[in-house]
């Protein structure tokens, strides 16, 4: 019997001929990623070694990546002290895939991993962050785990007791209308299958629309797979994967592609045609409360946010700059932009996007998670409404439980910045 | 017999259970004070009333959806509550198992605040209403972690086997 992509990768990583949904395995880890929550991982890692008489040593310092992104530059003495402890630990352990708070190498973990060529097709990636699903865009089996689970990975190099998930196949056909993007597709899918529609399952994206989608767009899809509850959200690797790894991530060594078997067994098939898809908006306070823009346009917004691991890449900024250039952000709203990495920020500078944004009245912040999770920078006032290209609109997400967040694509965010109300970017915002 | 001390609706996210702005606090000994921090009344109840270990929080569908922050499990573990929900999101559930926070998926559960609940090997019994509900058995993969007393000790066993 054929295997899905998830099953194939997991079988290989566990050293097995084949696996099926429900099997319990211990896959070897190719890359283990953490951000500031490495502070807790370190604590739990030390706990694992307690009383063993063994010296705490990570299984392979070259397979661990640490990226400071959630609270950069530190918003509090507590965070700064955590960051300091992490730096000391990394030095002691010889961990070198470390991305500091720097303009040259820093950024959001889910952008840093792909753009540095750390993620390869067919590998197992774990991260102490739920959006680790992002890396499925490059054909990896990538999933989020907690800090204690990561401590066990650091000690043993494998994930203990993983249950092989069943796979839902998502087949996408059709062509996007202008100003309709991967973000609209994934919001539509989540609205269709619900926020728990893929809980404990893997999503596998197929169809001509996915074939034609850039890796950046695929990252948006896989990033938000977890918002449907999915363990992983994967795109079978292809020529586009190779192109991205060679041209953007500057990978020079061999790249092995892995695709699902043609007779793989799927638990469910979901078909979507994007020909007539409108821009989609996830309304408060749930990611699956998705409506076509026609139903919510005109809603007043006090803060527009473009950025995050979902939509803070160069093509996202390009789409927004295209709409904003030479115009003004409405005085009825404010616009914050967080490029996903230092590299993207510099490229956007060279291409003039940053100047376009600032001349229009937007504030361009340092790369990082920014206001996505409501810790620092850009909190909302009581009763305020945000429109954001990020991936979550749960109650309290942007730092205030009495504020609301709508989620959208970069084009919708940019068009709405000009008017101060949710605005359809098609036909020049009219 | 345990009392239901709190009942929430569907899709209660980890942002609600443990808001992001407290994420710099990581130690399981320190996280409990921020449990459901934006729900001032319940947070205060947890902090100031003596919560009986084994007290019950009733959740709807998709309890614990969202972020992988382990604080969302450790903050509740600090009060030794049991979460009974219609559905539980994967990462939260795994974190709970790893830290020894008891979670039960009972898809048809009906209970209100103040109800008395009893849990046996097969069913959740609401003694106040007289109704009983099936719950999903814990998978063998997760049961072995629970039996070891949590993931730290399970991983420690594995580490000793290896060395
Ligand atoms: S940008 Fe937001 S969703 Fe992405 S890793 Fe940072 S906090 Fe998480």
Binned, the helix content of chain B reads 25-40%
Counting structural domains of chain B, the number is 1
Low-confidence residue ranges of chain B: none
Q: Number of DSSP strands of chain B? A: 7
Account of the 3D structure:
The complex is a heterodimer of chains A (430) and B (163). Chain A has 430 residues and is α/β, with parallel strands linked by helices. Chain A folds into two domains: 268 residues, Aconitase, domain 3; 150 residues, 2-Layer Sandwich (Aconitase, domain 3). In chain A, 31% of the residues lie in helices and 17% in strands. In chain A, the strands form five sheets. A five-stranded parallel beta sheet of chain A has the order 4-3-2-5-6, sandwiched between helices. Chain A has a five-stranded parallel beta sheet with strand order 16-15-14-17-18. In chain A, strand 3, helix 3 and strand 4 form a beta-alpha-beta unit. In chain A, helix 6 runs parallel beside helix 8. Chain A is globular, with a radius of gyration of 21 Å. By secondary structure, chain B is an alpha/beta fold. Chain B has a single domain, classed as Aconitase, domain 4. Chain B is 31% helix and 18% strand. A seven-stranded mixed beta sheet of chain B has the order 4-3-2-1-5-6-7, covered by helices on one side. In chain B, helix 3 crosses helix 4. The longest helix of chain B is centred in the last third of the chain and has 12 residues. Chain B starts with a strand and ends with a helix. The model of chain B has no long low-confidence stretch (mean pLDDT 95). The chains are: A alpha/beta (430), B alpha/beta (163). The structure holds iron/sulfur cluster. The site of iron/sulfur cluster has 14 residues of chain A, from helix 4 and helix 10.
